[in-house]
Amino acid sequence: MATTPQPETDPRHGWVLYDDACEFCRRWVPRFEGTLYRRGYAIAPLQADWVRERLDVSNDELIADVRLLRRDGDQITGADVYRHCMRRIWWAWPLWLLSVLPGTRQVFDRAYRTFARNRYCISGPSGIPAGED
Fold first, then answer.
1. Distance (Å, whole) CA 13 – CA 10
2. What are the residue ranges spanned by the domains of the chain?
3. Res 56: pLDDT
4. How far apart are CA 16 and CA 46, in angstroms?
5. Cβ contact 79:108 at 8 Å
6. β-strand partners of 67
7. What is the arithmetic mean of pLDDT over 67-74?
8. How would CATH label the architecture of 14-122?
9. Cβ density class 71-104: b for 16+ within 10 Å, e for less
């Protein structure tokens, strides 16, 4: 039985996984690496070999959304990843609150979904084809 390669960092709570082929994601997610790390999360690209092997989903499904992979293997996807992280960062708490209030929750979800669906048009691809490291 083959073992799944381990990531370089072993955070207390899990990994925020982002699309490394999206220029916006590649620039912005690493800027929050220290903030996330202090709260027990590491970051990694969805295209990393260990991520692909651990999640075992199709490439299209893999890169469809930002993901949070917990140490126990559970996953959070999409707008819920942002909610999860914002709730743990004191200065982002007001944004978290807005993202969970009735009415604004749907706006937040729709805004996330629109961005995720159009992220290559908005930021342009990085030149890294999806599926390659």
1. 9
2. 14-122
3. 85
4. 9
5. yes
6. 17, 77
7. 94
8. 3-Layer(aba) Sandwich (3.40)
9. eeeebbebbbbbbbbbbbeeebeeebeebeeeee
